[in-house]
Design goal:
- By secondary structure, this protein is an alpha/beta fold.
- The protein is 35% helix and 25% strand.
- Helix 3 (106-116) runs parallel beside helix 5 (150-162) and helix 5 (150-162) packs parallel to helix 6.
- The longest helix is centred in the last third of the chain and has 18 residues, at 180-197.
- It is globular.
- The two termini are 27 Å apart.
- Bound molecules: adenosine-5'-triphosphate and magnesium ion.
- Residues 18, 20, 24, 26, 44, 46-52 line the site of adenosine-5'-triphosphate (ATP).
């Protein structure tokens, strides 16, 4: 018997306009539905609004109009406390530039989001152990990120993003600074992690290789979408 797919993200008529000297319509009215555990790659030409969409989904940017339902709740209506909680526990972010704290060791970087989320020490220790084993970063635990290669730093960044067991991982050009070999390793790891933890993965990438590790590709255009 096939299990009914649970919708985890529903983006409804999402509009974002950057206001300034010139107004930029970054999102023209986007409609997207993503299922739980699905791995989606978002593509589209430079400046089309991919990062803007991811920032809205991450609860970092409030869109001009529209709804973003995550597990049925419209995050656009969240207050600051609800947004902080959402960013801590529901979404994990992976960026091109790794975004690791340079003054903390690898272990402390992975622990940091769990300390903020007030995770108990024994639970945290177990989680660090599990993540570093799967991501093969045990030997770097006590080093500062700058001593690691780009691929190694991105593996640490994936561990940081997954630390609080988010149900959605958002990755914006996660391989933008990596060579082909390391890029494939990052796609493979993100994809595997999502299967293991039943996490939904939304990756923005220019790289056609990324699509091979995804269930579906969404192409953004400047035209208001009915459903993607
Ligand atoms: N903070 C900002 N203020 C004003 N305009 C912005 C801002 N951020 C992005 N934009 C504009 O909004 C549009 C969408 O930008 P966005 O960064 O989302 O594109 P993108 O698809 O991620 O591009 P790329 O592939 O180059 O990363 C662009 O025209 C950009 O110039
Ligand atoms: Mg971008």
């Amino acid at each position: 018997m096939s299990k009914k797919k649970q919708k985890i993200v529903r983006i409804i008529d999402l509009v974002h306009v950057y206001k300034g000297k010139v107004e930029t319509i970054a999102l023209p009215g986007i409609n997207v539905t993503i299922n739980k555990g699905e791995r989606v790659v978002i593509r589209g030409k430079s400046g089309i609004g991919k990062s803007t969409l991811l920032h809205c989904l991450a609860g970092i940017l409030k869109p001009t109009a529209g709804k973003i339902l995550v597990e049925g709740k419209n995050i656009v209506d969240f207050n600051e406390d609800q947004l902080a909680e959402y960013r801590r526990n529901t979404v994990g972010l992976v960026y091109q530039s790794y975004n690791l704290a340079p003054f903390l060791t690898v272990k402390e970087n992975i622990e940091f989001p769990m300390i903020i989320a007030k995770v108990k020490k024994d639970v945290m220790d177990k989680r660090v152990e599990e993540l570093v084993e799967v991501l093969e970063i045990e030997r770097y635990l006590n080093q500062k990120p700058s001593y690691l290669s780009g691929g190694e730093q991105q593996r640490v960044a994936i561990a940081v993003a997954l630390a609080n067991k988010p149900c959605i991982v958002l990755a914006d050009e996660p391989t933008g600074n990596l060579d082909v070999e390391n890029s494939l390793m990052v796609y493979e790891l993100l994809s595997q992690m999502c299967i293991v933890y039943n996490t939904t993965l939304i990756t923005v990438s220019h790289d056609p290789e990324a699509v091979k590790y995804a269930d579906r590709e969404i192409i953004l255009t400047k035209i208001k979408s009915k459903d993607l």
